Amino acid sequence: QKEVEQNSGPLSVPEGAIASLNCTYSDRGSQSFFWYRQYSGKSPELIMSIYSNGDKEDGRFTAQLNKASQYVSLLIRDSQPSDSATYLCAVTRTGNQFYFGTGTSLTVIP
Amino acid sequence: ETGVTQTPRHLVMGMTNKKSLKCEQHLGHNAMYWYKQSAKKPLELMFVYSLEERVENNSVPSRFSPECPNSSHLFLHLHTLQPEDSALYLCASSQEGLHTDTQYFGPGTRLTVL
Fold first, then answer.
1. How many Å apart are CA A62 and CA A57, to the nearest integer?
2. Whole-angstrom distance, CA of residue B22 vs CA of residue B67
3. What gap in Å lies between CA A2 and CA B54, rounded to an integer?
């Protein structure tokens, strides 16, 4: 069983729509959760981090965490073509345990 | 220079060559990481250094040998690699190496093993 699972996509949404990206993880002991964005040919960069159940909003981005369901999601409101990238879900816990998903490719269509 | 830098950006080597990848962070962080990114696979954590001490080695083959001479520099020494080692090698740093830390990635070295 993979530590972190994401739908690889591609996910296509029209400009201005809401993009919903999902991630599940296998270890209930996971403690910290991150969404990174990776443009083609570039390195990952942090979008959001979330550590407790519920929603966390930052501009057009909302991260949602449900530890009981072992599920974390990222919503992108008013999607823009510049949001087109691969989104990586990362799950970490103590003891230098850092796990990434394979990423979901998002395309925002103008 | 700002952030995390890596050199070289591209490397082609034969299976009998010896080469080294270099990473430098200008963020004042205490932890540094090497990751391998292959197509269609998740980022794989290879090594973690915290305050220049190796704290994690995720069953990486001995043909990969890391070195961390100080908290700003990290090397990955390569020898007798296999074609399946061809990948993007990413260096990252974080403040303390805690599970809550954001990791900041360098641009990566694209490695091709012939």
1. 4
2. 10
3. 25
- Amino acid residing at B103: Q
Contacts of B53 in chain A (CB under 8 A): none
- In tens, the pLDDT along B33-66 reads 999 999 889 999 999 998 878 877 778 999 999 9
What residues of chain B lie within 8 A of the CB of A45, using their CB? 105
| Nearest-neighbour CA in chain B from A73: distance (Å) | 17
How far is B105 from chain A, CA to nearest CA, in Å? Answer: 6
- The amino acid at residue A56 is K
Amino acid at B51: L
Buried b (16+ CB within 10 A) or exposed e, A19-37: bebbbbbeeeebbbbbbbb
String of DSSP letters for B68-82? EEETTEEEEEEES--
Mean pLDDT, residues B76-95: 95
The residue whose two tokens read 């960069």 is A45
